[in-house]
Amino acid sequence: MSKYNKPLPNVNDDNKDFWAGCKVHQLRFQRCQSCGHVRWPASLFCPLCFSRETEWIVSEGKGRVYTYAVYHVAYHPGFENELPYVVAIVKLEEGPRLLTNIVGCQPDEVTCEMPVEVTWEDITEEFSLPKFRPCY
After folding, report:
1. The sheet that has 54-58: what strands, in order across it?
2. How far is 6 from 2, CA to CA, in rounded Å?
3. Which of 3-7, 80-84, 119-123 has the lowest mean pLDDT?
4. pLDDT tens sequence across 37-75
5. Distance of CA 86 to the CA centre of its chain
6. What share of the chain is helix, strand, coil (3-state, %, to 5)?
7. Which residues of 93-125 are buried (b: 16+ CB within 10 A; e: fewer)?
8. Cα–Cα distance, 118 to 62 (Å, whole number)
9. SS3 for 10-75, per residue?
10. What is the pLDDT of residues 16-37, one digit of tens each?
């Protein structure tokens, strides 16, 4: 693995299970055991019913592009060689929306509601990033 020169995720008590799942190529989200709401970001209690009863589930990794932007300027030097690139919010089938990148197609091919599936970029020994590619 080459040296990774971009910002790394900030792991904390709330999201450590999410990042542990990513390392083994699983998208993990919290689901409320009281009302069934699947949420991201992780939290101590459900934002809908305020229950503290939570379980972690593994997402199928399929969804649709909710919204996106094409970056033509690198606001961090680590992204200079990737211009242009797509930053998107993907709405997963389970419900959560995840900020990510769209890969595997040209930026001008990305559309809202485009079906996508997760793919993984192993960036360091500790981290794998979920990114999404078109699935037609």
Report:
1. 38-39, 28-32, 54-58
2. 12
3. 3-7
4. 999 999 999 999 999 999 999 999 999 999 999 999 999
5. 13
6. 10, 40, 50
7. ebebebebbbeeeeeeebeeebebebbbeeeee
8. 6
9. CCCCCCHHHHHHHHCCCCEEEEECCCCCEECCCCCCCCCCCCCCEEEEECCCEEEEEEEEEECCCC
10. 999 999 999 999 999 999 999 9
Q: With a threshold of 0.90, does the pTM exceed it?
A: yes
Taking residue 46's Cβ as centre, other Cβ atoms within 10 Å add up to: 20
- Token readout for 59 is 């997402």
- Report CA torsion sign: 125, 129, 134, 135: positive
Tokens of 117: 């599936």
For residue 96, what are the CA distances in angstroms to 37, 57, 89?
9, 12, 10
Q: Per-residue pLDDT tens for 101-129?
A: 999 999 999 999 999 999 999 999 999 99
* Contact by Cβ (8 Å): 105, 85: no
In angstroms, how far apart are the furthest CA atoms of the chain? Answer: 46
